[in-house]
Specification:
By secondary structure, the protein is of the alpha/beta class. It has 15 helices and eleven strands. The longest helix is centred in the C-terminal third of the chain and has 24 residues, at about 355-380. The radius of gyration is 21 Å and the shape is globular. Bound molecules: glutamine.
Amino acid sequence: HLDRIKAVDADVHAFLHVSGESALEQAQAVDRARAAGEPAASPLAGVPLALKDIVTQQGVPTTAGSRILEGWIPPYSATVTRKLLDAGVVIVGKTNLDEFAMGSSTENSAYGPTRNPWDLTRIPGGSGGGSAAALAAFEAPLAIGTDTGGSIRQPAAVTGTVGAKPTYGGVSRYGVIALASSLDQVGPCARTVLDTALLHEAIAGHDRLDSTSIEDFAPRVVDAVHRGTTDGVRGLRIGVVKELSGEGYQPGVLESFTTAVRTLQDAGAEIVEVSCPNFEYALATYYLILPSECSSNLARFDAMRYGLRVTTDAAGAALVSAEEVMSATRGQGFGAEVKRRIILGTYALSAGYYDAYYGSAQKVRTLIKRDFERAYARADVLISPASPVTAFPLGEKVDDPMAMYLNDLATIPGSLAGIPAMSVPSGLASDTGLPVGLQIMGPALGEERIYQVAAAFE
Ligand code: GLN
């Protein structure tokens, strides 16, 4: 895999950092243990993995795709990283992302965009475009992503790979740089559903270092995949969400979705149509809650504690106060999208506007959760396209934030409700010839069901 990275990553640019030597050493240690007849640490021992560069790994540079963290070496590892290393997984490097995971195309990275291996002139999705592209380009068989509004599922969809967002609290967030704490989830990415399930089990579980981590919840998703492969989906009620198709969705995506519905029906599932009327407000709700939380989370980048520190003004004169240093550092260290959201969030949380914006958004979030609850009374899982469009050309939406935000039309409701959801490849769009992803959503703690259904597309 290191050879493959060397051969293709100059074009793809999936990685921000490659841990060449230490990865090789780690792999060789696994080989030696195997040769000595020692039991493997886990089924994934020795398997290479690409880690999204928003998850800390002790001693390895972590940037979150931002200039403000350039040169920062974390003194500790995220729980997820620790679990992976304990399982014998070989972390080959850190992958590119939109700055602080804000974006849907990886073009907001301060270190240049990642390209889609299916067509190098197109985006690989975002924010986890690096992880998805590393999989699609065969630079690694496993990857870790984070999903706040779709950053695992939408990149998976547009690169023809698999990605799952666990139930909120199912995987520890400790050591993962926070975007929006009430939405962020770490999740597994791979090229097959079974690999995704194996990785899911390796990272899931309670962590006392994360106060929102769920206790006593260990979904048996590998068994669920095997069950799906042998028993299929017969008897399962699968809900098609009326509001998550139609306007705003590319014809080739809708066509592929209709074929996927037919596949499930032919395999014995009962298809029901469900309506979730408040999903119409999901995007607006998300773009109040997310900026609010991120404006608060990103306050820690104060030029004192981490990374970049700008100490002179444009003319080279020394800045004298802490406030001036902070202001200059944040001015230079953050990109345009990050600043846009900090400003929006600060405004939405300010005295006099809090109730009208943040408070209302929280109420609508509850209504969206209730829509899901009602839908799950009628269906075991819900499905929709994972992304409204296939991979678009680089540069097409960079100057139009609203057009960029619309890429998460289908994934954001599930994020607001904290439910588990994944994207599996459902074929190529007839209009663009590019991969389409099917989104499978379950009720909270319903990981096993979604993996069982996903197995039908393996
Ligand atoms: N594209 C969405 C955003 O920009 C999702 C980001 C994410 O899931 N990290 O907020």
